[in-house]
From TrEMBL:
Cofactor: Mg(2+)
Domain Exonuclease stretches: 110-291
SUPFAM superfamilies in the record: Ribonuclease H-like
GO biological process, one term: DNA catabolic process
GO molecular function per UniProt: 3'-5'-DNA exonuclease activity; metal ion binding; nucleic acid binding
Alphabetically ordered keywords of this record: Exonuclease, Hydrolase, Magnesium, Metal-binding, Nuclease
Gene3D superfamilies on file: Ribonuclease H-like superfamily/Ribonuclease H
Domain of life of the organism encoding this protein: Eukaryota
InterPro entries: Ribonucl_H, RNaseH-like_sf, RNaseH_sf, TREX1/2
Identification of the protein by name: Ribonuclease H-like superfamily
Record-stated family: Belongs to the exonuclease superfamily. TREX family.
Organism expressing this protein natively: Arabidopsis thaliana x Arabidopsis arenosa
Amino acid sequence: MCVSISQVSRLRIHSFGSSCCERVHGWIKNSSSLKLLDVRASSVDGKARWIRRNVSTTTQGSRSNTKSSVLGGTVPVTRIIDEKSRTKVQPFGNLQQRLAQDKDLSKLLTVIVSDLETTGLHRKNERIIEIAAQDIAGGGYSTFQTLVNPGVVPITNAHIHGIRNDMVCRPEVPRMEELIPIFLRYVESRQKPGGYVMLVAHNGKSFDFQFLINEFNRCSYEIPHNWLLLDSLPLARENMKSVEPTVKLSSSLEALADYYSLTREGDAHRALSDVLLLSKVFQKLTIDLKLSLSDLVLRCHTASDISAAMAKNKKA
């Protein structure tokens, strides 16, 4: 059954995926009978449009058959890596400390991997032009992806992600102020009752989360207080350092994919492709680093943490 919500007088809640490249957690290609609403903001011919159609997708990644410490809690707390070589972790705020101590943490926390593409690199002046997310536990409606209309802000880095102005500057592609309620509805649909959300992004603290906070503020929204923001880049650096202490190995998503022998689905630097790859990389990192959910929570930031750091850097 397809569920819809109204917003800004014309949009509906859309599918959380793209018919041309969506794969849910597990990368399984066999279809189930589950029907999703598929709404794309781009197509293979480069013409942007919103489409309502039924598609089939696979749902896999349940807590019972996943080896990741994030999903199953199967990795013991004991450490194999020399503690002296590990980055010293300082808990941020009371929320993280309190949540990390909760014995029912796995019943409260939803882990969502995210990625976004932008018109340029300036966190304040540029705009988000694509956003994707995936609930790492999988299941129905687990994936979200869409292009975003940046309005009058031109795309200056199309050579990086391949998204052109003519693909997004169209009336049928939602603007950020129209999309935020839909994205919030997606996250709420994945959230456990009374629970919290951990949003994961690679280089998120310096890039993705700053863009997201600025866009929410610009559209007069706030990042929900029950969201925790986790940057997976420090985890990657820590793991690569433990692999080869004397050599600085790259911690980019591409380098990690090569290290773990993972195959990318779709083009690099497109939001959904990066999300699907990061979902697998992130689980590999938590296993290699022997990180429990509590460990990850203590490494998270809140939106207020990042906003304060942004304000401090602006004054510097």
